[in-house]
């Protein structure tokens, strides 16, 4: 059984946080930046898949689909035009870990997306940046420009004959546009509403091209795994939940924020040892896991381990990695009304259960 090493101070995904600024590409390179991309280009696509299998990486956007499986199914040679997208819409309330990655290690995100482009033999990719994050667009564009100058983007990357470039698209400020097909519709200049499937975007996505779609954190983890080696990454975690996760924890805790934790801590340990305990020494009433669309966990489940499997067994989930903590003063009913109002406001109105089933509740 895998054990949890070095419980509260693991820095793999977040290893570069605070260590360089967005216009310091040389510092990123000194810190071991772009090694993951080099490994991918030198060792080839099968090596990337093998490493992702060992790492057990599951999509960090919420659906938790095994990344190796998505990527293996998507491997293409240059027989048709393909496209790759980094989903930086991060619209799920309580979720703010992708913002941290883009702000504190943007080159790693670019590196992960370039690896994804290589796997699909894509020539172009996009970062779909949440509208509220457009203040970071200029920084991301500088990161892209400096990466081009150093030969990590653009024509003939690292002399391998691989051509790939990235554009930044601004999101349209709608929750539904975090869903892949709605996101693509909005990139194509249409109303951001989900498409009926099939076809899935893996075969017909942006401008009808086969499109690979990943969350910001998933891409950063791919770059990390290829750099450090999957077996090293796999020393952390618990059971089948391998490695670490960036969580965003908020609500009635003393130290809300983004933290990297190994899978396997208990919810209680996360609250007490990572987030500094409950404000004013109150008691926990409930948690909400994975953002406002996630399930609520009562206080009685605080000794549950934070792993995919332990949470799924209880009909809970990791989702995006958000953890909201509510203390004894929070009314569950009032909280649910607020959550419901969010979904009422954000419903795109396309599907009947959501359009007809979500109502506005007034505050008492
Ligand atoms: C309504 C809705 C909103 C979503 N919002 C996001 C989002 O903001 N960011 C994200 O990465 N995934 C979001 N997802 C999940 C994506 O559809 C998709 O599963 C994910 O980006 C795939 O990347 P991954 O495999 O790396 O997790 C959303 C899904 C739905 C249905």
In short:
The chain has 364 residues and is of the alpha/beta class.
Which keywords apply here?
alpha/beta; Rossmann fold; Ubiquitin-like (UB roll); five-stranded mixed sheet; about 35% helix; about 15% strand; globular; binds flavin mononucleotide
Report on the architecture of this protein.
The chain is α/β, with parallel strands linked by helices. The chain has 2 domains: 209 residues, NADH-ubiquinone oxidoreductase 51kDa subunit (Rossmann fold), CATH 3.40.50; 93 residues, Ubiquitin-like (UB roll), CATH 3.10.20.600. Helices cover 36% and strands 17% of the residues. Strands 3-4-2-1-5 form a 5-stranded mixed sheet, sandwiched between helices. It has a 5-stranded mixed sheet with strand order 9-8-12-10-11, with helices on one face. A two-stranded antiparallel sheet has the order 6-7. Helix 3 packs antiparallel against helix 4. The radius of gyration is 20 Å and the shape is globular. It binds flavin mononucleotide (FMN). Flavin mononucleotide (FMN) binds next to strand 5.
